[in-house]
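Q: A reviewer asked whether we had any structural model of the full assembly, not just the individual parts. We don't, so I'm hoping you can provide one. Inputs are below.
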Amino acid sequence: MSDHNYVPSSKLGKWFNDRLPLLSLSAHLREYPTPKNLNYWWTFGGILTFCLFGQIITGIVLAMHYVAQADLAFESVEHIMRDVNYGWLIRYFHANGSSMFFLAVYIHIFRSLYYGSHKSPREVIWIIGMIIYFLMMMTAFMGYVLPWGQMSFWAATVITNLFSAVPFIGESITNWLWGGYAVDSPTLTRFYALHYLFPFLILGLVILHIWALHIPGNNNPVGIDVKKPSKDTVPFHPYIVIKDLFALLVFLTLFAFFVFYAPNLLGHPDNYIEANPLVTPTHIVPEWYLLPFYAILRSIPDKLLGVVAMFASIFVLIILPWLDTSKIRSAIFRPLYKQFYWILVLDVIVLGYMGALPPEGIYLLIARVATAYYFIHFLVILPVLGSKEKTIPLPLSISEPVLNEASDVVKNNKMNTE
Amino acid sequence: MSEEKKPKRRDFLYTASYAVGAVGIGAAVWPLIDQMNPDSSVKALASTEVDVSLVEPGKSITVLWRGKPVFIKRRTQEEISEARAVNLDDLIDPEKDEDRAKNPEWLVMLGVCTHLGCVPLEDKGDYNGWFCPCHGSHYDTSGRIRKGPAPENMQIPKYEFVSSNIIKIG
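A: Here is a predicted structure for the entire assembly that you could use as a starting point for your response.
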């Protein structure tokens, strides 16, 4: 935490704060000096916090009505939808909430990539973030299994079978995961227990993520180190709080659209058919937010290597701070990186699109090229750019370019410091 | 600490304590891991008997065994000869049809794709056998993998003919 000497005004406050400095913590959070040039891409941390709490609260409520047993699970979800007061609302919020959560996390991650927020001295924030992302995927996957529809069942089958690719002990691992010889009731029950646990692990990691953020302070669009506190910073409250709340309201508009007008748009109709271990749906796809990884898995014609490539695509993100060797953080001052960044964005979107299409013919070819490019971006382009790229000179401070311009302008023009 | 590197009585006690502690933790953790393995009630359902008297030649039935589908296919003469005519060198996972179907008319195998566990569809694919819709694996009339990402042939479970019409799986 940043060093400041907060003294509560009341006697009781002082007594308490001397014993547990919660009031100091709260003061730190309010005063926390934040770069004044943060744009709206920086509001997704707050949005993600909202998403996490939204999922935890609706999840706990759903758990009061859901039954994690293979013969009853599907029915209990329908019971929530039809009988439980506002059950439809709570479930649709929770189901669409996961999509909104991932939408926000992808924007949050790609913002980091653009402005170099993963670089020194913020590597630990980034790594914790990637662990959170990985836990989110596992949580979302296990949550998707709980309604025990056809997609739930076959998603569970395909994903747990990934571990059967492990040489020699693969079968023992899958039987251990299943608690049987196929996905069945024991699998469902343990997924439910873990689906309940993981969000709290995520919450713990989020606290570490924010703690690690408050050591160096926020990165900013210019990507230079900022003196704190200084003319380049504003206190977190009220400036950033209000901005985050406004962004959250806009985000909630989209959220509400899905919940109230298109609650099943992102789902799959097959999941309203109860799980049947004898019939695989003709076309099985994961939820949209996992599609790029699914495309990587399918683009490799070998079972073990496909699984390895899929996990490697996540691992490569964890070691990114050491692959991206450029000292310049923000893409604003990296003309070449900026272009490769957008190619990567396009590449991931293409991978996602291919993940939704059947793996044959031209689609398979495109998926393979996109998979190769994904790894080339991280393993070849980024390290090479670090030494070869000619970057644009950085300003000395956030205010400098603005103030230089301002000196040319008539003095009584009001300056907007936001 | 003394300048000599010779291990002392205290070092021995430390090492011994760590070793006992590690064994103790291992022993305490094992039940927590092993509880996830298939339990006794799951293992107890290990065999099932199926009456196949109503299956016509060229048709098949699917039964559930240990939570997994088992295909019981009564093969036609063409399907048998097609399966037996295959050159073993053409196979990804070489295995003779004679070893897979003891009684050539009856093919009994787990209806589980060896890629990621989907149930393949019958009479589909490039080899007149099965085709897995999930990731595009093709199997022949003996259930052997011919094309696609699956690494192995579909498994043959342990089974026997209890009588001419009844197969006991498991």
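A: Points you may want to mention in the reply: DSSP finds four helices and ten strands in chain B. Chain B touches chain A at residues 33, 36-39, 42, 62, 64, 66-69, 111-112, 115-121, 132-136, 149-151 (CB under 8 Å).
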